[in-house]
What does this fold into?
Amino acid sequence: MHKVKEWLLYHLLGSRLKAILIKEFIQLTRDKVAITMIMMLPLIQLALFGYAINMNPHSLPTAVVVGEESVFSREFIRGLQNTAYFDIKYQMLSIEEADKLMEKNDALFIISIPFNFSKELIRGQRPQILIEADATEPVAIANAVAAGQALIPHVYQEMTKRSLPDLQYIPPPIDLVLHQKYNPENITQYNIVPGLMGVILTMTMVMVTALAITRERERGTIESLLAAPVHPWEVMIGKILPYIAIGYIQLFVILFAAHYLFHIPMMGSLWLLLISSLPFILSNLVVGIMFSSISKSQLQAMQMTFYFFLPSLLLSGFMFPFSGMPLWARVIGEILPLTHYVRIVRGIMLKGNSWEIVMPELGAIVLFGITMLSIAVLRYRQTID
Amino acid sequence: MISHTKSDEVAYAIDVHDLNKSFSKKKIISNLSLRVKRGQVFGLLGPNGSGKTTTMRLLCGLLKPDSGGGTCLGYDIEKESLQIKQHIGYMPQNFSLYDDLTVAENLYFVARLYGLDNQKQIVQQTILDTGLENVAHKLAGELSGGWKKRFSLAAVLMHKPKLLLLDEPTAGVDPKARRNYWHILHQLAQKEAVTIIVSTHYMDEAERCYEMAYIKNGDVLVQGTIPQIIADSKLITFNLSPCDSDELETQLSRLRIVKQVARFGNDLHVSGFDEQALKHEIGSLVSSHQRWEKIPTSLEDVFISLSNRQGSGHA
It folds into this structure.
């Protein structure tokens, strides 16, 4: 027993092990970025997973096309609102206006109540109500669709109890027709693969340029570079341009796989997608350069990319429904370029969106890129202080 | 790249005054003033951490002074750093070219960076002039320390700078290569009127400079030619030989009139300012088998004395 204790003390707390433990502890306490990361990452993840992500989103933006204004149509709309899944944001629209809203991601559902709805309802002809759901986000719409279907047998129960007892019988008085737009077969890859394009570009583009300046700093080559008559913008652009080509190679590989392996349709213009990708690639490269210009080592720069990548992944609407997030998370999400790029890619590939719909999203990406570039240029030191 | 610039009109390649620089509240350079004539090989000497590298970086615009100012090649060191960079060649202490590029690729990179005409011709000529033919297609990271130094010098000379700032350029280089290196530097100064500022620890290198400055705690303690510096030090030195015991060394060190005692093999150099007092004290301490005589004070004696000087600099 004594020997075992001696062995344990020697090997576990022996001077060599102790020396390494003490050294590691000292180094760790001096690495402020690592400590911040150890403390902050769990907190960020707790906040994002605990508060921001909601797999059962409510109050989803809904547009209603009412062919007939009557007590029955109003009761039906009230019933939908009472499920808490549908937020009737737009009413009294034409079908074209409602379609436009869905293309722009402003409405996830279009409810169409036909002309002569009341008449057919009273006659027991089971009029059809069409619910069109944006199936590019299947997780977001699933529960709302189920709630809408569950509503049908009960929607007129109270008001028809005495006056129209026939409508109480089975089958329900309304025939609810569900149309999953853009992804009628509800194929998961339709949702994932276009979004993945943005995720892959974000991950790789930010990472490669995040190391660009810190690598020069760590290897000592920055001294020669700074001693030469070079402008900061020349260094920045020189470091960014080669990776644009890399970004496009990645894009082509993913598009090829999307088309030939996953059979994702390309409803819109390929050229529009390629052109729209440029500001997105540039923005991510600039974010990397910005991290590179403020961090002291490659390791620090890598750690910083996590702070950008994690919220991008979780708050962009790529993995979890954007509309289900609280306001603060959506505000952060709206700032991030991945959010807009996911919308652009899904919009072009699945919905066939055109320039006019893509432009506002592109504007947000460009604004983000310019802001990051300004920070990077201001932070890029022409001296080695 | 050779063009008529401000640097051709000024008498001093470097003319700075009262420079101050601190890092995280620690003062590295303190009221440093320095003048270096054009076409000189000028040595910057001083112990480790004395501020030699920071001084070089301030002169070439890699650092901005907290206060003070002056000119480098006639250009303001604060406001005209881009112009300064066009006319200087700065070689940092550590290898600062790209390990993952070949020697030739690195040289092409530098040629493009400075916008040189006839890049191919210049690179090939540089490779020939500096004897890099056999390593031209080797990765820079694979070169030995000596080759790296030679290659770095080749790179900073390509754009024909008017001022060379070389931070410990021969550290880790063997004596023969060092001699060659200095030969190149003197040729540059004599034939092409390039001003060269070299920081070094080596006394023999310091003695190769036309003029030098000794820096301690970020301040220039002395500046001038070697005979000037030795004369200005007013040090009197005696050589004791053989000195085989530490006891005598300790006894001499404790004397108030002795400013420094330095061992050179079996010899002991004892320096001070009062010749008569030194004679008296040494005579009373040495034994009969030991010889002692007055010798000319060397540059090394002066520098050891300067580096031992207390309170001369700033914290």
Notes: Strands of chain A lie at 60-66, 86-90, 109-113, 128-134, 175-181. Chain A has a mean pLDDT of 87. The CA atoms of residues 247 and 329 of chain A lie 28 Å apart.
